[in-house]
Amino acid sequence: MGMETTQQMKALDERYFMPAFSRDMAIVKGEGSKVWDGEGKEYIDCVAGIAVCSTGHCHPEVVKAICDQAHQLIHCSNLYYVPHQGEVAKKVVEITGMHKAFFSNSGAEATDGALKLARVRTGKKKFVAFTHGFHGRTIGSLAVTHKPAIREPFEPLGMEKTFVEYGDLEGLKKAVDSDTAGVIVEPIQGEAGVIIPPDTFFEGIREVCDKSGALMIVDEVQTGLGRTGKWLGIQHTKVKPDIVTLAKGIASGFPMGALAAREDLEFKKSEHGSTFAGGPLACAASLATLGVIEKILPEVAVKGERFRNGLAKYNPRVRGLMIGITIGDKCPEIQKKCAEQGVLVNCAADGNLRLVPPLTISNAEIDTVVKVLNGTLG
Ligand SMILES: Cc1ncc(COP(=O)(O)O)c(C=O)c1O
């Protein structure tokens, strides 16, 4: 396979691919925190596939694990024990403090699995989610995703749910009733633009769930796996959820998601499944990824502080290497100017600039990003 030019990719995209995405550049190569576009221009990547490439692009240990496994067995089906699946499940259980794990192919499917688990084990039907929350775009996960512009065209989505203002415990108390199966919440809202609520919010959710019998589902798809400087975003609080979902950073870009649940909460025979989920390649990639993250985890908070200090005058919201800056209408222009100067950043919702670089980003790279942002933001 030869390398395509950006023009060739654009022409094929315009003719043959449904125009659901907005894009104007191609990324054709990556190494560590750097990527290269179709014209060979180099960038420091503070998007990292939207918080996916946490070990950096093409980390040698992850590449080796995928290649070794590809030579051995690419797929076999969950009709059989799958190489590395149990090892990853053990690791996921250890890092989440949960009891058992289950795999999916994406974050949205992890949400769907969590919603199914909550419904089947509680026998209840309803969910409560929060304004500006994002949990995916499948029919199930979209039902609990707030943003009206992406959800409403597809209603009715067959799920009874209520949206409560993120942070509003009084509203939550009113919304949860005896038929509520679960409350789903992000520890930090990622797509909304890195919104960090007080710890008391999560303590309050736990209390409401304990009183009503609803399950507390924490969506760690974006915040999990070291992104915030701990394995989970919720681990910055003392709260223990009932169900945790993971995806994005779990296998360095190989499609994979997971859910993990506390004791007495598990799928029984035939209640859930998927052809590809937790396959040999995904699990090999994940095992290597989790090993790399374990080594670099202690440095994540320190690197986040380096960003915080460098960007202090813009009042950034920083937890580990999940960083948000409120810019407003100029956000797309800032994103473009940074790209021109070799730094990829991305506009999340509501004019919030988001930085979620590889957890392996070096101090020198952080300093370059800070310099470019300071120059661009003025
Ligand atoms: C918190 C959260 N949950 C779920 C998802 C959906 O994940 P995926 O795009 O892998 O389906 C995302 C994706 O951005 C997310 O940020």
UniProtKB/TrEMBL annotation:
Keyword annotations of the record: Amino-acid biosynthesis, Aminotransferase, Pyridoxal phosphate, Transferase
Pathway(s) per entry: Amino-acid biosynthesis
Needed co-factor(s): pyridoxal 5'-phosphate
Pfam families the UniProt entry points to: Aminotran_3 (PF00202)
CDD domains: OAT_like
GO annotation terms (biological process): L-arginine biosynthetic process
Gene Ontology MF term list: identical protein binding; pyridoxal phosphate binding; transaminase activity
Alphabetical list of PANTHER family matching this protein: ACETYLORNITHINE AMINOTRANSFERASE, MITOCHONDRIAL (PTHR11986:SF79), AMINOTRANSFERASE CLASS III (PTHR11986)
Family: Belongs to the class-III pyridoxal-phosphate-dependent aminotransferase family.
NCBIfam families, per the entry: argD
Protein name: Acetylornithine/succinylornithine aminotransferase
